[in-house]
Amino acid sequence: MTAGDRVGIIGAGIAGLATAKVLGQAGYEVVVFDKAPDIGGVWSRTRRYPGLVTQNPRDQYAFSDFPMPKDFPEWPSGEQVQAYLTAYAQAFRIPLRLGTEVTAAYPSGGGWTVETDRPESFDQLVVCNGVFSQPDVPAYPGRAEFEAAGGRLCAGPDFHDTEEARGRHVLVVGYGKSACDITVPISEVAASTSVVARTLVWKMPRWVGGLVNYKMLLLTRLGEALFRSPHPRGLEKFLHGPANRLRRRMINGIGDVSVRQFGLDTLGLVPPGQMEDIVRGASGLATEGFFEGVAAGTIRVHRDRTVVRLLARDSVPSAELSDGTVLPADLVVCATGYTQDVPFLPEKVRAELFDERGNFLLYRQIRPVDVPGLYFNGYASSFFCTLNTEMAAVWIAADLAGALRLPEPAAMRRAVIDQVSFLDHTTGDAHCRGTKIIPLSLHNVDQVLGDLNVNIPARTRAAHWLIPVDPRAYREITPTVLRRLARGYGAAPGLTRRSS
Ligand SMILES: Cc1cc2nc3c(=O)[nH]c(=O)nc-3n(C[C@H](O)[C@H](O)[C@H](O)COP(=O)(O)OP(=O)(O)OC[C@H]3O[C@@H](n4cnc5c(N)ncnc54)[C@H](O)[C@@H]3O)c2cc1C
């Protein structure tokens, strides 16, 4: 692979844009396809629901070399993130084919053919189609009867206008970030707003105890070290060994604060387990106004229940819960998660991607071991998505140049399988088919940079144990690696041409 070769990129969300920017700077001709009419993926206007804001504070959700505007709030809205990504794409002149769905992508002639309304050839393919892109809406029995009575069932990302809920009975299914975000604006206009939560999960207050930004506690290296890692080192060993009790008190103490802060006891909404189980959920930050709405009676949570069927009772669209309760439901919004899949890849390729349980097997969350010319980005959903995707893009650039010294395929496969087993164990299987690596967000960054033999200064990393990790600290990584690649392997310390 040489500079000037063509790389096809599927998806114009954060991962696709970061990949296109880095590979473009490395000299490749990139083309980014997205089926949506605008860029941003999760943040596209076609996917934004009312009330959508980031979980990450502004600085932690920016790319290393492109800060968010200073006048953005600490937690930008979906619209602001989309505007930021649009500015990023413009600043780096990213070639986009919007409104263009990739219907198939398959190996051909030593490269890849990408089919949209026509086939197009690329030397390499990077899949950035988003692990939280395809909503998973349950196939409830009774849907036809429910809809015939005037009910509407939709996924969270398909609910765009709060006015649709005005004066209506609304059921939100789910208890993750999207569910709680959507519920608040709905509850301000609906006749009734019920939330059906199969399992309550822990939610981190934005301001812990009303005072401390959660980023000071969780978005630091110390915050990550509070969770188990497969190969603990240094302070991690200490925290999970002699200081285990202190560690548990630190993380679960935040849970105690959140119980008090939100009055969860009184509301009957204390989740099972402890705050450290947050790794099982979707890294949920509590939505402003959600618990307040429950306290005020405008939001009713049906905990430990599921929707078992939709129906029309006395011609009124309704939903039956697992405890037999039947609720009127003109509108049912499902914030029930996403499916992770790559339907456009052929069976032969897919067979190489998954384990027998359907988990993605990607080395460093980037590269299938045995499919030449295929990469993934955005498959390390974490507390630091922008940083993980940006560093993954640099790793891809180095691998395309043949400059990474990677282990033998069997060792890579073993490393991936070990990581999936670790995630099984720590998250109770809640790792979105191997793509959600929250307890290992910074571990992944470190590993990727370790492969590149490059890093930020040790003193900055040390500071990140106590202050939130700021992607800006990593802004020299891309230019440094690209300079080394341009100079050739011999002059690139740490970057060694792969022998195979
Ligand atoms: C509601 C919500 C809020 C979130 N908030 C945060 C947050 O605050 N902080 C954080 O770190 N993470 C957050 N995340 C996680 C989020 O997924 C990542 O931060 C990031 O935006 C993902 O970017 P991506 O590019 O990997 O995927 P996406 O943003 O999903 O982009 C994938 C793109 O691929 C396109 N695509 C898919 N298939 C095809 C095809 N066949 N042909 C053409 N195009 C295709 C899609 O249209 C989409 O535009 C949030 C996720 C959700 C769902």
Automatic annotation (TrEMBL):
One Pfam short name: FMO-like
Family: Belongs to the FAD-binding monooxygenase family.
Statement: the UniProt record of this protein carries the keyword Hydrolase: no
Protein origin, superkingdom: Bacteria
Record's keyword terms, sorted: FAD, Flavoprotein, NADP, Oxidoreductase
Species name: Actinophytocola oryzae
The protein's name: Cation diffusion facilitator CzcD-associated flavoprotein CzcO
PANTHER family in the record: DIMETHYLANILINE MONOOXYGENASE (PTHR23023)
GO molecular function: flavin adenine dinucleotide binding; N,N-dimethylaniline monooxygenase activity; NADP binding
Gene3D superfamilies named in the record: FAD/NAD(P)-binding domain (3.50.50.60)
Presence of the UniProt keyword Magnesium in the record: no
